[in-house]
Amino acid sequence: MFRVFECRNQVSEVVGMFQKEVAERVAEGPGSKTYGILSVLLGAFFEVEYLFTVHEHVFNPPPKVKSAVIRLKRNGITQLDCDETLFVQVVKAGFNQRRKTLRNALRSAGLPVDSVPEATLAKRAEQLSVDEFITLTKTIQQCI
Questions:
Q1: Which of the residues 25, 32, 61, 92 has the least number of beta carbons within 10 Å of its own beta carbon?
Q2: Could you give the dihedral angle defined by the CA atoms of residues 87, 92, 98 and 102, in that order, rounded to the nearest 10 degrees?
């Protein structure tokens, strides 16, 4: 999935079967505990749709886990309104220490947080939408 993100300009659509937990993580929205790095990075450039669950009994031999099919379709955004390398760095920094507030997670990653609004810094990464991560990145970008 990280490779799909890297090659997003050559990929118009992806349909794939993944372990159910991975599919849920990619397709989840903000506010969920399964919302993570892939949810944000892929959500910036793709419309992600959880299609259906595939139960283990349809395979021979049956695996020990359920699978799920998801579809990623390009959303028309070719470039973010911020530095994309910094965007990836901010997203990863926010989620690498999930239990910390963004203030502590971003500081630990060496990113300047002085001009970021207090309301944003008090949140955890899982509470921010893709657009809020883009806004956060633009704010940090002005301090660098």
A1: 61
A2: -40
Predicted confidence pLDDT, tens digits, the chain (144 residues): 999 999 999 999 999 999 999 999 999 999 998 999 999 999 999 999 999 999 999 999 999 999 999 999 999 898 999 999 999 999 999 999 888 999 999 999 899 988 889 999 999 999 999 999 999 999 999 987
CB atoms closer than 10 angstroms to residue 116? 18
Superfamily of domain 2-74: Vaccinia Virus protein VP39 (3.40.50.150)
Please state at what angle helix 130-143 crosses helix 84-96, rounded to 10 degrees: 110
Asked if 70 and 48 count as a contact pair (C-beta separation under 8 A), the reply is: yes
CATH code that applies to domain 84-143: 1.10.8.100
pTM, 2 dp: 0.90
d(CA 22, CA 6): 18
Q: Which two tokens stand for residue 3?
A: 């490779």
Task: Report the chain's terminal Cα–Cα distance, integer Å.
Answer: 29
Amino acid in position 35: Y
Give the span between the Cα atoms of 21 and 39, in whole angstroms: 12
